[in-house]
Design a protein that fits this description.
The chain is mainly alpha-helical and 455 residues long. The chain has one domain. 82% of the residues lie in helices and 0% in strands. It is globular. The relative contact order is 0.13.
Length: 455
């Protein structure tokens, strides 16, 4: 990095207004996810692996939703920066409609073929039974997840990040409380175990989507104001040029979601205990990854608004500052995760076997290095996404996942039968290659585009 790049107080303040609420929102959600894991771990020896397996279907659906929202979000950010609110409303309509439609096949499949879905990832019959009960009830909540995500993303794109933080915070805390009652059967509540964790998720997610809608309606948000009657009315002349940039993002995130679930299948080749160790490590690492989510959201909102306003030079200057900020944050987070791995794992999961805890701790050490790679990949992708460079993102994301990451995983675990810790370390080669190619694309400047002119 060039020494002349300074992080002025004004820039830090602007980033903080967007990044901190989003990071806090993600932190609350992550803590609740971690609490779920700890609770089902205390209730059942197969609880963690069952929820991990069942959650893969949800993760694919959520990433497809992210693909829709991040693709359309390019336009929302830039239309907001250009003060074109009529077009912004049309963009939100497209985002919401596509999100709802995308959720329906996942809901139907989760209800009709849960055994087939869970059995694809692992062959342990006990784990499949636990995963099946969780999947069938949580699949009903997918439509609420995608509605909430559309409202959440729209608010992020126009810089209103505190409200999603408050709504998400309330719903996930409610989820945590309901988990406790439904898993263990406290008071007059039934003891439903893993199924109870799914029931709690359904209730809290339904309430969350309702709160987003009520807030947006009562506060006359720009993406919904005077637009409710025609919210699902689609203007094809408006959509056609937009779809050209959005569909690569949708396809990429869908393929990426499938690919990430295939990693779970690869880990499961070593058995339920290996899968449990990875699941524990991932849930703990996600606590530290919330900073990445916050920074990347700030990247798309701030850089995207500048591109939409036609201020290319300022967008370029901000991108350099984000890289400096990302470097500082990743070094700090990686060191913190490495040093806290032992007390967190052994403190939160006392009931797990010692070899599972030791494996989870070692995997966290690898993840402390991965944070640096993931931070820069995410920031570079944020730049490219802000400028609508979605086809390149798809190649760098899903292309490398299927071309490098997954083949390495199945070779390491299915052919060479390496230790899970060494295998996960070797798989990071995918991240290294991605960061080199993403940096090259960033330096080319081809992503610096005002996409509002296309619509």
């Amino acid at each position: 990095m060039k020494a002349k790049i300074h992080l002025e107080k004004e820039f830090i303040h602007m980033v903080g207004l967007i990044a901190i609420p989003i990071a806090l929102q993600q932190l609350v959600e992550t803590f609740v996810s971690l609490a779920d894991s700890v609770m089902v771990s205390q209730y059942s020896s197969i609880g963690v692996s069952s929820v991990q397996v069942a959650s893969q279907w949800e993760n694919i659906a959520a990433l497809l939703s992210f693909g829709i929202c991040s693709g359309v979000g390019i336009y929302i950010s830039q239309f907001y920066g250009a003060h074109k609110y009529k077009e912004l409303k049309k963009s939100f309509s497209m985002m919401l409609l596509f999100s709802v439609l995308a959720s329906l096949p996942f809901v139907v499949a989760g209800l009709c073929i849960p055994d087939m879905i869970c059995g694809f990832f692992i062959k342990d019959t006990q784990v499949i039974l636990g995963a099946r009960s969780y999947l069938m009830i949580t699949s009903l909540s997918y439509i609420f997840i995608m509605i909430s995500y559309a409202f959440n993303y729209a608010l992020r794109c126009i810089g209103l990040t505190r409200i999603p933080m408050l709504i998400s915070g309330f719903t996930v805390i409610l989820n945590c409380i309901l988990n406790y009652f439904f898993i263990f059967g406290v008071g007059f509540f039934p003891e439903w175990g893993i199924f109870g964790a799914g029931v709690a998720s359904l209730f809290s997610r339904a309430l969350g989507s309702l709160l987003y809608f009520i807030y947006s309606l009562m506060t006359h948000q720009v993406y919904l104001e005077d637009h409710l009657r025609n919210i699902f009315k689609i203007d094809m002349t408006f959509i056609k040029p937009m779809v050209k940039r959005v569909w690569p993002s949708m396809v990429n995130e869908f393929l990426f979601g499938i690919g990430m679930s295939l990693f779970v299948k690869a880990y499961a080749l070593l058995g339920a205990q290996a899968l449990t160790g990875v699941s524990i490590a991932e849930r703990i690492a996600n606590i530290f990854n919330v900073v990445i989510w916050g920074l990347v959201s700030a990247v798309q909102a701030i850089v995207g608004a500048k591109l939409g306003a036609g201020d290319i030079e300022m967008a370029k200057e901000y991108s350099k500052k984000f890289m400096v900020l990302g470097f500082i944050a990743s070094v700090f987070l990686g060191g913190l995760l490495f040093s806290l791995s032992y007390p967190i794992v052994y403190g939160l999961y006392p009931n797990e076997p010692n070899d599972v805890k030791a494996s989870a701790m070692a995997i966290l050490w690898v993840f402390s290095f991965k944070i640096f790679l993931r931070m820069f990949n995410s920031i570079f992708f944020g730049f490219l996404r802000a400028g609508g460079d979605t086809k390149v993102i798809a190649i760098l994301d899903s292309g490398l996942l299927y071309g490098v990451g997954l083949p390495l995983a199945f070779l390491c675990l299915g052919v060479w039968h390496l230790d899970i810790r060494l295998a996960i370390f070797m798989i990071q080669l995918e991240q290294v290659i991605r960061i080199i190619l993403a940096y090259h694309r960033y330096r080319s400047g081809q992503w610096l585009k005002n996409v509002t002119k296309e619509v």
